[in-house]
Here is the input.
Amino acid sequence: MSFRLNHVHVYVLVHNNEVALFDTGLDISGSLNLLKKDLESIGQSIKAVRVIYITHAHGDHCGMAGLIKKESGAIIHLSSAADVSNRNYSNTDLLIPRVKKFYQAHGLTSQEVDKTIAVFSATRNIVAAFEGDYCLQPNEIREFGKWQFEAVFTPGHSNGHICFYFHKEGILLSGDTVLPHITPNLSPDMFDENFRPLENFLKSLDIVGNLPVEKIYPGHGNVMGNLSARVRELHVHHAERTQLVIKCLGATPKTAFQVALGVFGNDLPDFDKFLALSETYVHLLDLKHKGIIKEEQDGDILFYRFKGSA
Ligand SMILES: [Zn+2]
Here is the structure.
C-alpha cells in the first residue's frame, strides 16, 4: 500500500483448485497484478476464485473485490452493515456534505475540512465499485472444502466488521479488530449517528478474547499468538486514552478538535488532524452516553463540557 501502513494481507484457502479469498487489498496501480502473481506462485489463478469474504468495508480490505469478481465471477460475502456502508461511502454526493458538516461542527477550519474531504475522496478511489452478493449472519458457519469457519461479528473499528474463526484449527482471521503493535483506528460512521465505535469495539474485543484461539492472522502485521494478552493491552490503551481525554477536556467547554490537540499535540500533519479528531470524538461520545459530559451547540459548532460545570 502507498500509505504509512505499507501492506494489507489477503488470506487464501485452496480446495480442489478452487480459491477462497479473505479480503482483497486495495485497487491501486499494480495491486491486481501482484495478487495474480502471488496466486500463480501457489499454482492458482484469479479465475479460480469462487468466494470472497470481506472483513470490513475499508478500501484496503475490499478495494479489489469488484475487480476479482469481474474476472472470476466470485461471490462476495460480507455483513449487511458493511454492504450498506460500502454503498453509502461510495456515494460521494452523499458523503461529502456529511464529512463537511461533521468535521466543521467539531472544530476543524474550513481549510482543514477541505483537506479532510480530499482524503475521504482519495480513500474511495482505491475501491473498485462492487456490491455484496451474500450477507453473512452473526455466528453463521460457512464451509470451504475441508474448512469450517464462523463469522464472528466484531463492530468497532468499522460498523460491519467481521472476524473469521476456524474452530478446529484455533485460527482467527482478525481483520483490523486485533492488530499487533498498532491500535485499530476508531472513527464515527458518517451515516449512522447511533453507532458508538468505542463501546462496540470493547465488547468485540471481549467476544474474540474469549475464543480459544492459537493463532491470529491480522489484516496488517505478523501472525501472532496470545490473543488474550493483546486484548488486555487494547483495553488498557482505551482506558488510559479515556482518562487523557477527560484531563484534556478540563474545566472549560471545548470542541472535539481542541481536546484532540491536547491528546495528540499541536503539530499534527494534516492527514493526522482528522484522525486525531475522530479518535477523540469517539471517546467523547462514549463519555456523553455515560452521562459524564454533555454536548452543547453554539451556532454550527459543538462543544463538550463536564456535567455540572459552569
Ligand atoms: Zn485495514
In short: The radius of gyration is 20 Å.
